[in-house]
Structures are given as C-alpha cells and as structure tokens.
Amino acid sequence: MNQLSDYSKIVVSITTNEALLIVHLILHTSNLRRNADWLPTAAFCRGRMQPKNGKQAGRRLAAEFIRRWTIIFPAPRKAKFGNFGSNVELPDFRQPYWHPLCIDRNVHSDTRESVSPRDAMAKKTIRDLQISGKRLLVRVDFNVVLRHDGNIATDRRIRAALPTIRYCLERDASLILMTHLGRPRGRRNPKLGLQGVAHRLQEFLRGANVELVEVDAPRKAGRREPSDVVLLENLRFDPGEESGDEQFAHRLRQWGDIYVNDVFTACQRTPASLFAVPKLFPHGSRVIGLLVEKELRALDSLLESPRQPMVAILGGARAADKIGVIPTLLHCAQKLLIGGALAFTFMKARGLGTGLSRIDDDRLDLARRLIDRAGDKLVLPQDHVVARRLEAPAETRIVEKEIPDGWYGLDIGPKTIERYTAAIRGAATVLWNGPLGKFEDELFRQGTESIVRALAENDAITIVGGGESEAAVEQFGLVERIDHVSTGGGAFLEYLKQGTLPALTLIDEWY
After folding, report:
1. What is the DSSP string of 175-243?
2. Is 21 helix (H, G, I), strand (E, B) or coil?
3. How is residue 344 annotated by DSSP?
4. CB-CB neighbours of 137 under 10 Å
5. What is the pLDDT of residues 404-427, one digit of tens each?
6. How many Cβ atoms sit within 10 Å of the Cβ of residue 290?
7. Which residues are within 8 A (CB) of 395 and not within 5 positions of it... i.e. 6 or more apart?
8. Per-residue confidence at 28, pLDDT binned at 50, 70, 90?
C-alpha cells in the first residue's frame, strides 16, 4: 500500500491472530472510527491521512496489515488522537483481554489464542445501507414519563430519536416506528395509548405526516409516501411483545424491508420487537440507528481508550444493581467513588455501622472481596447527612464514618463532597451512574447537585448513565454541559459489564 511507505516506521512481524486483534482495536479506538479527520490507524503513523471514506480506507489498511503480517508502531509509544488534542497511551497489544472491553496492562502472557474480539463492536448502521424508497421498521424508545393528567412530562426520549428519523426522511425512506409505553401488561389501556406521543412527534417533524395505526393493519404499509411516518400503537397492548412471541413478531415483520434498532434503553431485554423480529430479517438488513450508534461510540471509547486519569462515580439505591459493574470500573479507572445507598453495603463489609440504612446482605461477601482487591482505588464517603426518618421534614445532622443506630444515611457530607469534586476536577474522563443521595428532597440534594455541577464545570470527557442520574442532570438544567447523557439505565450498566447486549447480537456487522 502506497500510504504506508510515506511514514518512517518500525516493522514488527506478528502472527495472524495478533494482526486480527490489532486491527480490531485500532479500527474502533475512541470515536474516530467514523466521520473523523483521521483514521484511528494514524495513531501508528507519523502523519495525517484524510480519506474520503474512513471506513473503506480502514478496511484496506486492515487488509494490508493482515496480508503483510506487519504493524507500524510510533516512537515513542504515544500518539495524538485527532481532535482530542491529548496524548493517549497505546496499550500493549500482546497482553490478553481481562474484560471484553479492557486490556489488562498488568498481565503478560504469550497465549495469543486467549484473545477474542467483542461481538458488540462495529455494528452496521443506517449509514451503511441504501435506504431510499425502502420501508424501515424502526424500534424506538418513546416510553416517556406521563403526568397525572396523561400529558407528557418530558419529551427527551422523543427528541433523542429525531436524528435517526430525520436522516431517513431526508433520504426518501418510509418510516414505521414501534415502541412501548408504560406497563399495560398485555391489555389495552387507553391511558397508555400513543396519541399524545404521535402529536408531539408531529410537532417536531414539520412537513412529515405522522399517523398512529394498529399493529394489525400492515396493508397500509405498501401505500406510504416517503414523507410519511407510521407510528404503531403501543406494542405492550399485545402480550406477545413481552413474551417474545414469534407470531406477534411475524405480524411486525410485515411492516418493513429493513430492521433498525434505535432503542439502547431496552437492549438488555428480549421482547419480540428487539429479539424475535430481527431474526426474521435477512442478513444485511438489520442495523442500528444513530442513537444506538452514539451510545456505543461513547461507551466503547470510554472503556477501550479513556483519557487518563479516569474517575468513576457510582451511586444509587441497590448494591445488587451496581456491584457487578465495579470490577470493570476498577480496571479502567484510577479512582472509583462510591455514594448513595450502595456505599452502606461496603461500609458494613468494612465493619462500620450503618444505622437503619439499606443494606444488601447478599452482596456483603462480594463487597469484601472487591475492597480487598481494589485497595485505595475504591473510595467510600468520609461523612454523611443522616436523618431520623426517610421523608422530609426530618431531623438531620452530619456524622463522620459511621451511621448511628436509629438514623438513615440520606446524602454524602461536606467533606466527602469536597473530596469527590476535587477528584472530578483532576480527572480527564469522568463516568457517573447513580445519585449520591435522596436528591428528590431538598434536604438531601447537595451531594448529587455538587457532583453534577462539578461535571458540568470540568473540561474532562463526561459521561452520565442511569435513569435517576439523567433525571438529576435535567433537574439541575445541565444536560447541555455534559458530553454524553445516556438514555440507558440497566442497559448502560449491562454493557459496561458484558461489552454487549442481547439485542445487539442480532445486528449485522459492517466488516
């Protein structure tokens, strides 16, 4: 390849398996793999490449690496990654994976066969298909929060799907959208119909026709104009959606020529619309939308090559929901700051008093093992805001280290706030999931609000995930100042733990 001869280089012979691993990593480092001004492979070169199509150039370069069984390394082993403007330390590729997403720099092994690529990477997107004149069956997440009067409380999830919808309409594709709303449990519930969602979507899509139709009206699908948008009625009105029923999947399959998954929030589950339906589409016609692509890009770049130092903050109510992701975060982050009710399980594991605070006794042994393994990486609160009762108004006070008997821990204290915000200010990458206290009540809001404001004021790459964390960022009016606010809660954590999600395994790869 002529491009390779333009750079001074050190050529190192490697095995075929090593070449595949290296190409796999360099093509998916950070968010440079698509629409960036360099290829990720430029990290191994002393120059700048500006291909018209980064993906195709990446394929050609990968093929050349494998053909020659060589790789180009820079000297020294650091390189600037395009627009980030900061040095990113390149991993030692001869080390095996410790986690599907992270390379263990502390383990050395000559067992090349122990390395296996992550199957959630490089999914084909709507950008990779010719969609003009096609019918796209798009699974979106319009599971919006409703007020008591039935009106939409926040339309953020509808707005999150707009880039995919507009991309398709601009290319003369016909859109059939499907979503669920609430928990009707397989029965028709007028309060959970999608009329309000369809009306709000119509307001966003001026010039397009949004029509709400029943799932069992597929004959209309063949008479659509390119500017038409069909919204299928609430999928959960049919019990086949949550049970993954194949007959219900066949009824949905009739609506489209191409299947698009644009609902990251539910990819850890296996409802019919996310699991059974894509199985019915031929290979080459199952892709992700722009929202899911954005989510995967953010998480992949975070876990594959985060800017260091990286700080992770983990809170929330239940240790059972969060503790499984801690090994991954301990591996990738310099510090893991614990708060919320999650902290009390770790405090009890250390032999500290927790008062009436919520404890997950089933996770105490795992918490002890994590504490032993983590050392000073895992940081617990120094002080707490405690109260006699869970609801405000309540008698409160600040205590250090332990929670007294008869009291609830409901927020982190001022010393912990100072320590945690200082860690955020010194970080280059920050991941936050789960509130640090009962932020719904003003008495116990200071810890969570301080963390959110520290994230917003920092120049670090900031990623926020989880429903309550998302709600807190919105409540404090700081969504626009966070680099990425994930739409996923359980999916966010599951992806961090496993490196893939069940629904994503059915999407086609682009290479």
Report:
1. EEEE---S--TTS--GGG-SHHHHHHHHHHSTTSEEEEE-TT-GGGGGG--TTEEEEE--GGGSHHHHH
2. helix
3. H
4. 28
5. 999 999 999 999 999 999 999 999
6. 21
7. 387, 388, 389
8. very low
